[in-house]
Amino acid sequence: MPSEPSSPSPTSGAEDPLPGPKPSVEPTGANPRLPTVDRAIRLEATAAGRGTVTWGQIEGPFQSATFTGTWSRTLETVQFDSSILVVVEPAGAPAKLGCRIVVDGTEVAARTTAGDATITRCSANTRLGG
Length: 130
Fold this sequence. Notes:
By secondary structure, the protein is mainly β. It is built from no helices and six strands.
């Protein structure tokens, strides 16, 4: 009986072309089929007055909160090689809005509306930060 070709071993000597933390071997998090990575990801939102922020990884789940002025949340374990999204809306009339994502101390996404707006968003990849 012919044998199946073997897959190369992950430790076959090939160098990883992408820098940064490597995924853990325990698949946990929002989607248990995807590995996670430890990163310090700070999500920030601002609104002139009250705002609503929705945040999460593309794989879900998303969460929402209502805030006044500024809001922030730090994520420490996220899905590896995923996109994270922050969406900010005014909780009322259009307003000046802003969002920011900082990965391991480096700002990788930021947006501030020039005037009154109904929505703004920031996104970043969890593997490379941007």
